[in-house]
Amino acid sequence: MITRNEIRLIKSLAEKKNRRREGLFVAEGPKVVGDLMERMKPAAVFATHQWRELRHCEAREISDDELRRASLLQHPQQVIALFPLPHETRPEMPPTDELSLALDGVQDPGNLGTIIRLADWFGIRHIYCSPDTADAYNPKVVQATMGSLARVNIIYIILEEMMAGYGGEIYGTFLDGDDIYQTSLGSGGLIVMGNEGNGISREVASRVTRRLLIPRFHAEADRAESLNVAIATAITCSEFRRQFSVKKS
Predict the structure, then answer these.
(1) Phi/psi at 133 (nearest 5 deg)?
(2) What share of the chain has pLDDT > 70, as a percent?
(3) Per-residue b/e over 48-81, b at no fewer than 16 CB within 10 Å?
(4) Residue-wise DSSP of 113-155
(5) What distance in Å separates the CA atoms of residue 232 and residue 177, rounded to the nearest whole number?
C-alpha cells in the first residue's frame, strides 16, 4: 500500500526545487531502478508483486492501480524508487589521459539523458555540465539514461573557469572546424558539446583548442542544417574511440 502523502511526494519530485528540498529523485522501471540499486541504496521502493518476486528485495508492495496513480510515466513499469541525491563535492579537474565530456547549456532532458547513456557506452566516466544544463536528476533525464546515471559522474561547474586550468586538449564541434574524419584525435581530452539552438557559447568556445567539423555528405541547400546534439555527441565519441582502437592495433 502507498499513502496519499507518499504519492504527493513522488509527484512533487518532478520539480527541481522539490528534489533539492527533499534530497531525493525518482527512478522508475525494472532496468533503471535495478541498475541504480547496484550503486546506490534507495530511500524507498514501491513495487508490484511481480517485481518483488523477481528481485527478492525489500520493497513496499503496491497494486497496479496504485502504481498508475503514483507514477510520473505514461506507461508505468512495475516499480518506483526514491534515491538520495548524491552529495555535492568539490569538482575535480578532468583527467587529461582519458576522454571526458563538457555540456554547455544542453537544456533538453531527453538529450541529456541520451548523452549520459552514450558516455556509459563509450566508457566516458565524467560529464562536466554548465549551470544552465538540464538537471541530471530530472525524471525525464533519469529514464532516458536507462540506468547509465549510476555509472557516469555528473559535475555541475562554470565551464570556462574549469577549462582555464585544464592541461589537456579541448575539442569542440563548429561549422568552420577541421573534418573530424581527416583529423588525428588523441586518446584523452575534453569534448565540448553546445546548446541545442545556439551551439557552444562564445566564452567556452574561446577555450577550445581543437575545432572539429562533422561534415555533411551532400551539397543540396534544402537538407538538414544541423544535427541533434545527442546524435552529434554519438558521432564524435565514436570517431575518437575508432581512432584509438586503430592506433592500439
Answers:
(1) -75, 150
(2) 93
(3) beebbeebeeebeebeeebbeebbbeeebbbbbb
(4) HHHHHHHHHTT--EEEE-TTSPPTTSHHHHHHHTTGGGTSEEE
(5) 14
- Cα gap 175→211, rounded to integer Å: 9
Assign 116 a pLDDT band (cuts: 50, 70, 90).
very high
> Would residue 90 count as lying in a domain?
no
What pTM was estimated for this model as a whole?
Answer: 0.91
Examine the fold and report which residue of 52, 84, 116 is the final residue of a domain before the chain moves on: 84
116 and 53 in one domain? no
Q: Which domain holds residue 19?
A: 4-84
What is the distance of C-alpha 238 from the center of its chain? 17
Cell for 146? 536507462
Listed residue (73, 81, 78) closest to 35, CA to CA: 81
Does any domain span residue 93? Answer: no
pLDDT above 90 coverage of the chain, percent? 79
CATH number of the domain enclosing 68? 3.30.1330.30
Sheet of 170-179, strand order? 153-156, 126-129, 99-104, 189-194, 170-179, 210-213
Q: What pLDDT digit, counting tens, does each position of 127-136 carry? A: 999 999 999 9
pLDDT over threshold 90, residue 32: yes
pLDDT digits (tens, 9 = 90+) for 203-230: 999 999 999 999 987 666 566 677 899 9
